[in-house]
């Protein structure tokens, strides 16, 4: 979802995935849907309803980058406590991709 410079609307982004991402575009039977949310963790809108609906359709990992987070938002979004990550910088985020690929991707999905 493109950033418009008007704050963080994570609930709206999650709703867009519900409306456009899973059922209409690429959902395959028998394949686990996985969603990776990267945010500053300070949404201006409601995340509870769309995240609850998405959890019924996909495994959701939530990554909050930075130090000024509302950690509760990330835990509300993620499928479980083990799927929440808190890198403090974007450099740390780059390293996290290898950890996540080992956990959630088929072998060699990230080179």
Automatic annotation (TrEMBL):
Recorded superkingdom: Eukaryota
A Pfam family the protein falls into: VWA
Domain VWFA: 1-103
UniProt-recorded name of the protein: Oidioi.mRNA.OKI2018_I69.chr2.g6175.t1.cds
Organism (species): Oikopleura dioica (Tunicate)
């Amino acid at each position: 979802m493109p950033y418009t410079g008007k704050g963080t609307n994570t609930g709206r982004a999650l709703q867009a995935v519900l409306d456009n991402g899973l059922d209409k575009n690429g959902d395959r039977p028998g394949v686990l849907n996985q969603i990776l949310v990267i945010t500053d963790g300070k949404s201006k809108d409601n995340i509870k309803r769309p995240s609850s609906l998405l959890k019924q359709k996909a495994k959701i990992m939530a990554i909050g980058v930075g130090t000024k987070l509302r950690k509760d938002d990330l835990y509300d979004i993620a499928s479980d406590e083990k799927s929440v990550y808190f890198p403090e910088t974007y450099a740390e985020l780059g390293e996290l991709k290898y950890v996540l690929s080992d956990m959630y991707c088929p072998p060699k999905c990230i080179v």
